[in-house]
Specification:
Layout lengths: L1 H4 L2 H4 L10 E7 L4 H14 L5 E9 L8 H14 L3 E6 L4 H12 L4 E5 L3 E3 L4 H10 L3 E10 L6 E2 L5 E5 L5 E5 L2 H9 L6 E2 L8 E4 H6 L13 H11 L3 E13 L13 H17 L2 H10 L1 H8 L15 H10 L5 H8 L11 E7 L4 E4 L13 E2 L1 E4 L10 E3 L5 E3 L3 E4 L10 E4 L8 E3 L6 E3 L4 E5 L7 E4 L9 E5 L6
Parallel strand pairs: 1-2, 1-4, 2-3, 6-12
Antiparallel strand pairs: 4-11, 5-12, 6-7, 8-9, 10-12, 13-17, 13-25, 14-16, 15-20, 17-18, 18-19, 19-20, 21-22, 22-23, 23-24
Helix pairs in contact: 9-10, 10-12, 10-13, 11-12
The protein binds uridine-5'-diphosphate and manganese (II) ion.
Length: about 500
Amino acid sequence: MLCFLLNRCQRKIYSPKRLRDASVVIVFHNEAWSTLLRTVHSVIKTTSKNILKEIILVDDASTRIFLKSDLDNYMKKLTLTFEIPIIILRSKQRIGLIKARLIGAKSARGKVLTFLDAHCEATTGWLEPLLDRIAENHTQVVCPVIDIIHDETFAYAKSFELHWGGMNWNLHFRWYPIGQEDFKKYQSLNEIGSFRTPIMAGGLFAIDKEYFYNIGAYDYDMDIWGGENIELSLRVWGCGGSIEIVPCSHVAHVFRKSSPYSFPRKEGVMGTLYTNLARVIEVWMNQDYKNFFYKINPVAKKVVYKDEPISTNLSSKLVNISSRIEIKERLQCNDFSWFLKNVWKENFFPTRDRFFGKIQNIKLGECFQKPNTIGGPSSVGVGRIELEKCLIETYAAQCFIYTQSGLIMTDESLCLDVLDPMVGSSILLLACSQIKRQKWRYNPISNVVIHIQTNLCIDLSSTIERRVVLNKCNNNLSQRWQMIPINWYEY
Ligand code: UDP
Ligand code: MN
């Protein structure tokens, strides 16, 4: 009877013999006492002893006094009470999360490395499903579903289901709805399994320790914070592994509005992130995407190249980049273009065989622009498409991709769409979902953009200025659009 009351995740039985033990590695810099302890206590409480080898805390040169002997004493007591080794390692200098995780990994005795941020809450049964996927195949890198600990009330909230990780044109990590093909595959499974994710969030994941070192661990020369999840994701996928999200495993995380700690570099968060990303680009991207990235992101160009041209040989200036390129060559890894084509087909990056550029109304002379709505990062750009003066320089909000399958998409996985499609309906930008409603056909001779489902044309509203709507096709100048390509692959 009980069996029927349990959900599918609770009913699943994991053979303990199959699972290899894990070391949980938690790095922190000036973490709050309560959140750090919430992480450690929740891990102890929710993890069976036979699969938890130890908890390793790595203190990245915190300056808060309570994180020193008070923490030592507290953890000693916990170790004795629960008979789970809790080890504290300390770095004298601020080294950043990447190097700190490497210190933790090096001393780990478990067969699987499980990284968590220092402000998490693990939930009952979180670790078994992760270890089970690794037991199935040790090249699978696995992530729990990351739930939300509210950053003011610290209440636990479930996050959205069936989202995977990607990145925007600035190479910032983002959540997007999972691709249709993967969604169908996932739905057709009899039991709750896992689904792929192109990019991993980075803070919470498990990886076979031997595999971690075989594929080159982390790039040791990345500083403080950021970009390491993009690098590891491109490396795992590119070099023959895979990354998954396992819906039966839930761990919550405090998503903070801004970093609570200082960034030693004078350019702050973005300076640090873009300096790290410059390494990712140098190793994993060909010249096309390198040019695209710096063209679309002038801030990154400024941080990385200052006032020099981007043709400057950056590789020779970056520390130990050649050792990262060696790994790529040794393992014969695929690069970013392959990743886009094979791992993340639903991506919204430009490629040489699809249109990338501005879309200008011939009558008004103005261009489509992504709305700059205020809200969470995922809601930015959702709303009515706007018309603004066309800018000569490459301006991301005026850049669109027209795919062979008929999508008109832009950064952040937003697609030209229309709710209740009929004469007069506003043209919107909504999350891409590959439904027929989001398909368009552009005729480069008559310059009309036709909504395939309804055979209506994109037109200017006759009553509201700068409003873009569907209308019966009538050959008027207001229905004519110029797709002006931008040479994204040359800087
Ligand atoms: N961290 C660290 N040293 C640093 C920066 C961050 O040890 O210089 C730790 C931080 O305490 C946290 C983890 O690395 O446990 C991830 O950082 P954070 O939570 O700020 O990243 P976010 O979740 O905001 O991406
Ligand atoms: Mn965090």
